[in-house]
Amino acid sequence: MAKPIAALRLVPVALAIMATCACSDPLASLRAEWRQCVNDAFRTESAKAVDRTKAAEAAVQSCEAKEDVLFRKARETIPDADRTRADFRRREVGRLISQAK
To answer: If DSSP codes are grouped into helix, strand and coil, which group holds residue 51?
Structure first.
């Protein structure tokens, strides 16, 4: 009878793992992919341009296809997600510039 009791001890752990997986951000992998694209593009653009702002804007622009995929997926749960797109880009440009200092 020791085996069933031992198995019952694992139930809370299994439930916690399933809850974490079920509640995870569905956009997390797309956002990470987009952020990696932007970071890589910013490194490339920074090597070519002295102006960090222009390099950051060019980096964000060069990853527009991945951004489109991200926002298309976001619209499935947030219908007006596109309204935040300009602010999303501004914050990312600001992050890149401050990170480069």
So the answer is: coil
